[in-house]
Structure to design on (207 residues):
């Protein structure tokens, strides 16, 4: 089959022009696709942002609704802590009160004759004694009686020196000893024992 092109030479479409036409068409199609994808992505992001804003608003409403309850819980917690602190202080004072009674009772039972206790102080289970005696033997007897009768630990003579009381020569001394933990636990029993200190010694204590 023979085809004859009867168009004038200047009206015949060249191959190069056809190629450029195709390139232009595909470029326009590509640009349209890019625009469509961009618009779709923008719409999706706008919807996502709107959803997040709605979630934030809902969360804020929930927080506002429970803020009053949270403030009430914090207030109740603070009050409970304050009450517990008061209870702890009272319990400590109560325990120490019985410990002081027990301490003085045991001390009075342990002091031999011819010894006067002038000061007795207790801190964290350690007792410090100050007093006067007529002889070294009496001080030694006191230390032995503390260990035997009051069940004290680590009785130590810290100071002993010559003094005068009403122009009478005496020995001033200072002792220190520890109250065993088991004795501290037994201290409340002194409240119910009903026994008065049985000693001829003069005890003046402060704690």
């Amino acid at each position: 089959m023979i085809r004859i092109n009867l168009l004038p030479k200047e009206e015949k479409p060249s191959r190069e022009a056809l190629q450029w036409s195709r390139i232009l068409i595909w470029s326009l199609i590509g640009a349209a696709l890019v625009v469509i994808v961009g618009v779709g992505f923008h719409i999706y992001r706008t919807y996502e942002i709107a959803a997040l804003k709605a979630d934030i608003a809902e969360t804020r409403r929930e927080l506002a609704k429970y803020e009053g309850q949270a403030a009430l819980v914090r207030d109740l917690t603070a009050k409970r802590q304050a009450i517990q602190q008061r209870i702890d202080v009272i319990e400590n004072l109560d325990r120490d009160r019985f410990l002081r009674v027990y301490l003085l009772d045991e001390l009075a039972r342990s002091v031999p004759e011819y010894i006067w206790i002038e000061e007795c102080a207790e801190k964290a289970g350690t007792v410090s004694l100050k007093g006067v005696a007529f002889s070294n033997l009496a001080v030694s007897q006191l230390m032995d009686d503390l260990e035997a009768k009051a069940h004290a630990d680590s009785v130590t003579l810290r100071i002993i020196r010559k003094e005068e009381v009403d122009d009478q020569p005496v020995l001033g001394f200072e002792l220190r000893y520890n109250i065993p933990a088991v004795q501290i636990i037994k201290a409340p029993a002194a409240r119910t024992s009903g026994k008065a200190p049985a000693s001829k010694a003069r005890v003046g204590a402060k704690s």
Remarks:
- The domain at 14-207 is CATH 3.30.1360.100 (Gyrase A; domain 2).
- The helical segments are 15-110, 136-148, 181-186, 189-193.
